[in-house]
Amino acid sequence: MSSDAASTEAVPEAPVAPRHRGPPWDVLSAVAVGGALGAVLRYGFSLLWPHQPGTFPWAVLSINVVGCLLMGALMCLITETVTTHRLVRPFLGVGMLGGFTTLSTHVLGTMNLVAAGHPGTAVVYVLVTVFGALLAVLAGVRGTRLLLRRKGDAR
Amino acid sequence: MTALLVAVGGAVGACLRYLVDRHVQGRHGSSFPWGTLLVNAVGSLILGVFAGMALSGPSIPVLHSLFGVGLCGALTTYSTFGYDTVRLFLDGARLRAAANVAATICAGLTCGALGVLGATALWGS
């Protein structure tokens, strides 16, 4: 009985704020337009820098590293400093940079390297992408923070 | 024409990623990015199927642009994965950051390979 009382008292509060029943259409539209732009940019990049299956996928590596650098910079701007419009993150972050960078094409490139008889290059490709991407995020965050601080000091 | 197909696929892929992530994170409320991990695994599986199909079955360029480059490319993401990992690491959850890297790479490669093998088995015979 006492445990019953305890359990009714200890009803946890909802861990997240109550959500809308349906998806927020303005956010979804921003994500869609951003995603379309990001994917087309990635496609354009791959046309400018074509690569034969089985060779080192420089274009996809650059896309993912550059996208991560920009994501670090964007999230630093949004979370730490400027009050931005609430659709900026869905449009630029979730949509555009999310649609620009890709894991699936990276995976396909890795499998193509293995299939072409270059398993060592495939391992190098995976490691360079992971560490390059993580360092790029960090550089984006730290670099933006530094620039903002300098700008603040100059005022 | 190809760019249009990529754009439509990219719009749908990004929306699916947003909705899946919102649903998964809303249920778990955990700091571990389960939603991004899930879309990355599923997107790699689908692209694997398309790659396997192109190897051994019918080659349909329209489907490749729409689903392969557009939808799978935008459904999966490296930037959100990278940012989430760095955020976990800087928040002191270093083990979870490392687990996210290992899980994403292993799930992506395994699902991609399974997709290729499945499609090859289906269309190769």
UniProtKB/TrEMBL annotation, chain A:
Catalytic activity: fluoride(in) = fluoride(out)
UniProt region (Disordered), positions on chain: 1-20
Topology with respect to the bilayer: Multi-pass membrane protein
Compartment(s) of residence: Cell membrane
MF-aspect GO terms: fluoride channel activity; metal ion binding
Keywords: Cell membrane, Ion channel, Ion transport, Membrane, Metal-binding, Sodium, Transmembrane, Transmembrane helix, Transport
Modes of activity regulation: Na(+) is not transported, but it plays an essential structural role and its presence is essential for fluoride channel function.
Assigned GO CC terms: plasma membrane
Bilayer-crossing regions: 27-49, 55-79, 91-116, 122-141
Parts forming coiled coils: none
Binding site for Na(+): G98, T101
One BP term from GO: cellular detoxification of fluoride
Superkingdom assignment: Bacteria
Main function: Fluoride-specific ion channel. Important for reducing fluoride concentration in the cell, thus reducing its toxicity.
Family listed: Belongs to the fluoride channel Fluc/FEX (TC 1.A.43) family.
UniProt name for this protein: Fluoride-specific ion channel FluC
Lineage summary: Bacteria, Bacillati, Actinomycetota, Actinomycetes, Actinopolysporales
Name of the gene: fluC
UniProtKB/TrEMBL annotation, chain B:
One function term, GO molecular function aspect: fluoride channel activity
Pfam families tied to this protein: CRCB (PF02537)
Keywords assigned by UniProt, alphabetized: Cell membrane, Ion channel, Ion transport, Membrane, Metal-binding, Sodium, Transmembrane, Transmembrane helix, Transport
Regulation: Na(+) is not transported, but it plays an essential structural role and its presence is essential for fluoride channel function.
Coiled-coil residue windows: none
GO terms classed as biological process: cellular detoxification of fluoride
Catalytic function, reaction form: fluoride(in) = fluoride(out)
PANTHER family the UniProt entry points to: FLUORIDE EXPORT PROTEIN 1-RELATED
Name of the protein in question: Fluoride-specific ion channel FluC
Biological source species: Haloactinomyces albus
